[in-house]
Amino acid sequence: MSTAEFLDRFGLRYAAGARAVVGVLMAVAAPFAAPPAGMAVCALVAVVLAGWSLAYLHLMRRAPRTWVWVCDVAFMCGLCLAQSVLVDPSLLVRFLGWVSPVSSLAVVALQWHVRPLPGAVATVLVCVAFVVGASASPGVTVGQALVAGGVWTAVEAALSRLLWRLVRRGGRIADEHMAERFAAERESELRRARRAEQRAHWATVHDTAASTLMMVGVGGVRGDEPWLPAQIRRDVVALRGEPGAAARAREVVEGAVADARITVDLRLDGDVELPGPVAGAIGGAVAESLENAHRHALVASVVVDLRVVDGRVRVIVRDSGRGFDPAAVPDDRFGLARSVRERMASAGGRAVVESAPGRGTCVCLEWPHA
């Protein structure tokens, strides 16, 4: 539900409720206003007023109905015209009559239920009826009747119409601001998703084709190595974005170690079935960590430790090489920063890199991330 719709519904219920409450209260007070027609006649009118007020509340609180408010305006006009027999003239002179509050509030509430034109017509009819009825009482002049209810009722109706317009305008403005905010949030999410997809693609290129081509370019391979065709096929599959299949944690780590160009001390403890995206993320992260160790650590071997406890996977790749300062790595560099960390984060895990110059490097992969 929009704000404007909520305020419309609230306005209908609030106006109808106020109209009903005042109608019932004035019905209770009516027989005690020393009516010239007598208490019995006024009590009968009061009972009709109370019953109609409650019926009005029931009928108008959900949706305005034309026949209901037309009957209400006619009833209010009748009360106003009958003031000379329903209200003590001395009370009218002192502006203490009971008809004025119920008739004026009926007109005020109507401004929240109907369009401006019918609301204005109803206001004029009730005001004229009030002036005619009040001035018919002994000792009450037309000027006093105008002050007692005619002019004041018109002013109240105008203020009520203005307030309702401001309330509805505020609701529309709030909806427009909310729509703009939601649109901005959606656009921000789309941009974030596009950036994440782009970074994932760059990381894939870095881990696959770029790494293989760099090895060829720097003379790291001769071209007849037995592992090279398989490596190229894996690169092509990764660049195509083909979804990986579910695999056991041991198989994933063993596959990454088997392709490493550095000696690995593999330690395995436990096993669990990994979803395809998770298996791909862990396998790629382990492979990138081993490749980084081969290129930069300047050591003969590394330790890869897989531990599975209660379905939680933890893989540690540790070397005793020259190390580096993680904080000094430029933001535009891939490798551990994006290829490993973002790869694990996209699969619901995390990667923690600990290193310092001269103290080696430790890459800890965890899934799922607590």
Query: Between the first and last Cα atoms, what is the distance in angstroms?
Result: 37 Å
Number of helices: 12
Order of helices and strands: HHHHHHHHHEHEEHEEHEE
Q: In angstroms, what is the radius of gyration?
A: 41 Å
Low-confidence stretches: none
- Taken from the alpha-carbon principal axes, the silhouette is rod-shaped
The largest sheet is: 5 strands, mixed
Please state the average pLDDT score: 82
Say how many strands there are.
7
Query: How much of the polypeptide forms β-strand, as a percent range?
Result: 5-15%
Textual characterization of the structure:
The protein has 370 residues and is of the alpha+beta class. Helix content is 64%, strand content 11%. It is rod-shaped and about 120 Å long.
Short structural summary:
The chain has 370 residues and is an alpha+beta fold. It is built from 12 helices and 7 strands.
Secondary structure layout plus pairing:
Layout: H1 3-29, H2 39-60, H3 66-81, H4 83-86, H5 89-93, H6 99-110, H7 116-135, H8 142-217, H9 228-240, E1 247-248, H10 249-258, E2 263-269, E3 273-274, H11 276-297, E4 301-309, E5 312-319, H12 336-346, E6 350-355, E7 361-367
Parallel strand pairs: 2-4
Antiparallel strand pairs: 1-3, 4-5, 5-7, 6-7
What characteristics describe this protein?
single chain, 370 residues, alpha+beta, two-stranded antiparallel sheet, 12 helices
